[in-house]
Amino acid sequence: MPFYWEIGDRAGVLASGSVGKDTTGTSVTASTKLSIASASKWVYSTYVTQYRGGADRLTSADIDFLHFTSGYTNMDSGASACPRTTGPNTVNQCLQRSNAQGEAFAARNPADVGKFYYNSGHMENHAGQLTKLGDVDITSLGGIIQPLLGQGVTLAYTQPLMAGGIRTSARDYALILRHILDSSLAMHDALGAHPVCTRASASCNAVFSPIKEAWHYSMGHWVEDDPRTHGDGAFSSPGVFGFYPWINSTKKYYGIIARAAASTTGEQEGYASAQCGRLLRRAFMTGVEQTAEIPAD
Prior knowledge:
The protein is built from eight helices and eleven strands. The chain has one domain: Beta-lactamase (3-Layer(aba) Sandwich). It has helices at 40-52, 60-66, 91-94, 121-130, 138-145, 170-181, 187-190, 268-286; strands spanning 3-9, 12-19, 33-35, 156-157, 166-169, 196-197, 216-217, 222-224, 234-236, 244-247, 254-258.
């Protein structure tokens, strides 16, 4: 599986590489456009934080939606959630749909309120209820969002799905991460804010997480802080096809693994990239080659 990786800081790329080629002999590069799936979640939460005017301006409702405890958990997963149609393609049109069990995407599940549940319905309903994006056609959606993400960023939506519909390149996503690092985006101060536990246990009332580790979830991004796997506290947002962006815990460096795998195992391609990415991150930070699945202490 070919992929591109890079690590950088607020000023630019410090190290990068392209590994492998696909069946047509094509490499993945920084400019390759890919569907980034759940890496879209971090973009949306960054947009919302900027739209509100700062991390401290997020409302209690914003927070419930962005760290996935709002109770809006009826959306189907995958590309079938909000397919493009021949008519208007909007968030509000998507919210008129129902899942296979007949439960409306726009309906709230009282039993899930206050509990972490990884589901696209949180952000879709947030966009429909609490922003002006609900009736924006998909052809205009990216153009409205990208000016609030910093100079030079270009992205587009392939479906009106705020939590997973973006198609963009590693180069453009890296610009967003650099804007976060230099504090020109308010997400800098929202990194790790209002974290919730994500793996059900005696001490955690979470409902569902696709990640096998006990990370926390913040404003549209994970906090990789499970001590059992030597979590380093990095902030990240892995996508179902394997696109994996991160910022390290000190907010000094960022990184990306860009690849596009056909996923038949939920979010596990994203998790696989996260496992690879944290080894790259550890090797970069320590100067020591990493050869195991989990970084050494």
